[in-house]
Amino acid sequence: MRTTINGASLNYQILGNSGPWVAISPGGRRALAAVQPLAQRIAAAGYRVLIHDRRNCGASDVMLSGDAAEHEVWADDLHALLTQLGALSADSRVYVGGSSSGCRMALAFALRYPQAVRGLLLWRVTGGQFAAQRLAREYYGQYIAAAQAGGMAAMCAMPHFRDLSAAHAPNRERLLAADPQAVIAAMTRWSNGFLQEAELPVIGATEQQLRSIQVPACVIPGNDNTHPKAVGETLAHLLPDAELNSLFADHLDVDVVPAEDWATKETEMAAMLLAFLKHRSARG
To answer: Per the confidence metrics, is the pTM higher than 0.85?
Structure first.
């Protein structure tokens, strides 16, 4: 399904026909298919699960502009999408969560729309100097360099944006028509945002902000240098009402553990999330 939210055409799916609403998002710039199996497990347990391609991801529109951090823009889009779908009202709130960049979006959602959140599902939490530098380069630095060297055509030729154009044809025309200097400026702001938050407990939120979040949270730390185990544990400690779960006993000294390794733990992770959802839903 597709709808226009805050000027961007977003691709989305709803799994399940009844029960409390849950919205989850994948890490990186992955498409909704990355969390579809997990969403199916949650929906089968009696929940309505929204998954969507965030702008600049999957089959949704590419829009490389704005002053706010991308995870904040994604949070605003998600709130508007949930509102349009009728998931939010005076009597209805939503469980929001995700992995890595999806986790950052969920935290931003809780900070910007506290009245809309019933609980948080947070896994593979990002934080620390290494993560900030790596993600700034991965998400923005390489594309800034391409645009500086060869304009928007060079950026279009890179795998991520080539895939976005293949998934949603209007993206290629939109990218080629964009002002490269404006795109470089936007990406530079976003990159600097990562670098400036390297010393925060998690990328995207200060300690004071995290302590202000009053909804319950299920935290499952990562196990690599981009998603340090200690960062997830710190998040669980700072959130006032958090349950800490662990999928991997050890932290691995690698840039990032492949998503496939986490996929092997999907059944176990789904059980953790569903136990949290069942317990918290029962408490109302």
So the answer is: yes
129-136 helix and 180-196 helix, angle to the nearest 10 degrees: 170
pLDDT at residue 284, as a whole number = 60
Do the Cβ atoms of 126 and 203 come closer than 8 Å?
yes
Full DSSP string of 224-269: SSSS-HHHHHHHHHHSTTEEE--S-SS---SS---HHHHHTTHHHH
Domain(s) labelled CATH 3.40.50.1820 in the chain stretch across 2-128+206-282
Token reading at 159: 């795998």
pLDDT, tens digit (0-9, with 9 covering 90-100), for 202-232: 999 999 999 999 999 999 999 999 999 999 9
Mean pLDDT of the chain: 96
Q: In what order do the strands lie in the sheet with 8-15?
A: 2-5, 8-15, 48-52, 21-25, 94-99, 117-123, 217-220, 242-244
- The hierarchical CATH code for the domain 2-128+206-282 is 3.40.50.1820
pLDDT in tens, 128-141: 999 999 999 999 99
